[in-house]
Each structure stands twice: as C-alpha cells, then as structure tokens.
C-alpha cells in the first residue's frame, strides 16, 4: 500500500511540474535587457544623438525611447539630484543654455 501512495504522489508531482515548463524555445522578437524589477535597462549610447541639441520635451521622449529607458530627465548645472542609481533612468545633462552636453544612465 505505501508503494502505491508513493507512486501516485510521484506521478502527481510530475504532472503538476510539467505544467510549469514552456514548450517554446523561440527568442524574443525584440530582446531588451531588464533589471531585477522588470524594467528595461537604459543604454546611454543609443541616446548620444541628443548631444549638442536644445532641450525639449520631444527630444527627451525620443532619447528615452531610443535608450530603452523607463524614465528620463534633463539635468541643468545647478539642479539638485538624488543619489540613488536607477539603471532604467536616462539623464540628459545640459549647460546653462539648455543644450545637451552629456548623456548617461542612473
């Protein structure tokens, strides 16, 4: 009798765990690196086109999309910033005339 219960228990466990596996091995159509929070990681190199351009909401959104960032912001020379690092945030640093001089993530 105990062998029958053990066999049934094993069979039940195998059936339940087989539902957890996926049957496809196809790669994602658009591979995006994600952080442990599930957000996409920022790639600053993709937003370097913005360097030398005047800051505008349209430029910010275009740079955010190209970099794959969740959030984006302009940082002027005297802006106060938080010290936490966020791999899903794009920073566009500007000079006093609001011209982008540097692009980085964080």
UniProtKB/TrEMBL annotation:
PROSITE patterns to which the protein is assigned, alphabetical: PROKAR_LIPOPROTEIN (PS51257)
Residue ranges of coiled coil: none
Cleavable signal peptide: none
Name of the molecule in the record: Lipoprotein
InterPro entries linked: Prot_inh_I78
Phylogenetic lineage: Bacteria, Pseudomonadati, Pseudomonadota, Gammaproteobacteria, Pseudomonadales
Pfam families xref list: Inhibitor_I78 (PF11720)
